[in-house]
Amino acid sequence: MPERRDFNAAAAEWDEKPHRIRLAQDIAKAISAALSLSKTWDAMDFGCGTGLVTLNLAQNLGSIVGVDSSPKMVERLNAKAREQGYSNARGECRDLEQGELPDGRYHVITSAMTMHHIPEIAPLLTALRNLLHPGGRIALADLEAENGSFHEDPTGVFHHGFSHEEITQLLVRSGFRDITVSTVTEIIKGERTYPVFLATATAG
Ligand SMILES: C[S@@+](CC[C@H](N)C(=O)[O-])C[C@H]1O[C@@H](n2cnc3c(N)ncnc32)[C@H](O)[C@@H]1O
Q: How much is the pTM?
């Protein structure tokens, strides 16, 4: 079993990094623009963390459930949803790689900066596809292919980003169609700039 990153240890201070807040805003904006979100839609945010993207999207959706395998991350999301008065957003602790699937079906599934922490992506994307209503949409944001310098600590990092071609092929193999991939923002760390893509697709 490959070693995983301890996201519980990071949860309390996750929101204290301004670049994470800005990144989540950029990603939520790009998702909203790409998918024309609707208040009649139920959504799931996979690997939601403290809900930085989840809560940004909530105002444009009927409901959104953030799913994360870290109980401390989910605790933070639920506390923030309560404090900020989001009655349509909540978090659930589930490890989707272990088959801990939610009961619901969704019109849209989002995910931000999580896929590079997943060793086997195609089975996970297939599981996400099966949680979508027919014709449901997926929106994945993550690092574009990089040289491994993004994470100072490589624990639990299984991919050094993804090329547009690679993420397209993974979505095709997992039963998605109508795939678009574009660069939507970037993360600046020291002297380096790391582009971030948004891939959208329809459950086939
Ligand atoms: C880099 S964080 C991103 C958090 C959030 N999306 C954001 O943009 O701030 C990745 C998250 O994915 C979660 N995660 C990793 N593997 C998971 C799995 N198998 N099932 C559910 N969540 C997972 C981690 O616990 C962590 O909170």
A: 0.97
